[in-house]
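Board notes (copied after class):
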Amino acid sequence: MRRFLPSIVTMILLTALAVGAFLTVGQTYTDGTAGRLLDAMQTSIQTLSIAVITGSATIIPLMLTVLGMAKQANIEYGCGFYQQVRWVTLMCAGTILLSTLLIMIMTVPMTETNEVYELYRPIYYTVVGTASLIVGLFSAMIVMLADAVTDVISGLSPADA
């Protein structure tokens, strides 16, 4: 647990920061305001989602490469290292799934019919929460990945370095 503390703190802080920023900028008092905010956020949210999907999809094969390097160099890492690689991979999969969900939500056409109009506020808060969680997870994953790469570098570098 101690090994994951920096990642957990990063995820909590950045998720809270993202939620706070979204809610500070976009206080919604009516369903119509939420609809306009969703429309304004559409491009940014889709760009964020695509960037996270691309980054996460790249990190998963790199984790396999790290494991291959460790095995080829005959370096024995502790159980914590392998748990860290597992968690990074699971977090990548989670961010890909959440980002895909967010893209699907944001591609629904925004119409002003009475049936959909009252759903704008819950959709807005769902989008804000999901985007904030993606930012927090991706940031925690980067911190965890940096720690794993540091372990690999330590294992591969000469003893006197």
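Comment from the instructor: Residues 95 and 134 are 6 Å apart (CA to CA). Residues 61-154 form one domain.
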